[in-house]
Amino acid sequence: MKTRIMKTKLPSFKLGCFWLWPNCFNLRGVPDCYLADISVQYADLAFIGPEGSGKTTLALELSKNTSRPYISTRKILENLRDNDPGPFGDEVRKMFNDKVYLAGETLLKILVERFSKDDLANGFILDGGFRTVEETRDFRKMLKLAGRDYPVDIRYLKIPKEISYERLIDGAKARKRNDDTPEALEKRLSNFYLQLEERQAIIKSEEGWRIIEIDATPTPEK
Fold it and tell me: CB within 10 Å: which end of the chain, N or C, has fewer?
């Protein structure tokens, strides 16, 4: 199966037999008509993008209206940080304290354990992921070890840096989470764009995967 790379703005998209039409929901002002057809051929769907691009909003909405469970690498790690007294919990707590990424080998083990659970047997909607070259390269290995090596449909939600600041810090409806400081946001954005082209190249090289770039910048409703 040849990997497909597309840039698109289409009027609606289909997930299985479920249709989502424009204006059913939006990404903090981003029209959902910016989404392309999602085929049943792809059991696994992932959203990547910089801070404020709408990954969580869209992934949660899709999960709520379909049979595919929502999953987030950050939520998995936060759960270990808060509830695991063992070695994994210790490593994750150190990661959050030091504001760094978790070692690739450790993350792989954690994700294999989570992705092998029965609730993900028929696919999932992933919020984030593919944050480093190592994580991106190991993702297929992780799916195979978890028994979940299905075709993966990845949506890259693109926004300029100023939109990230507007949605998270400066705007009238900004999220303004405790860690949404200019310094912290700048670091998270830098981390996202670090080796981005190399990560995209890895995704594009995977047989049966596709990546679609979506302009997630707000535009006026027509």
Answer: C
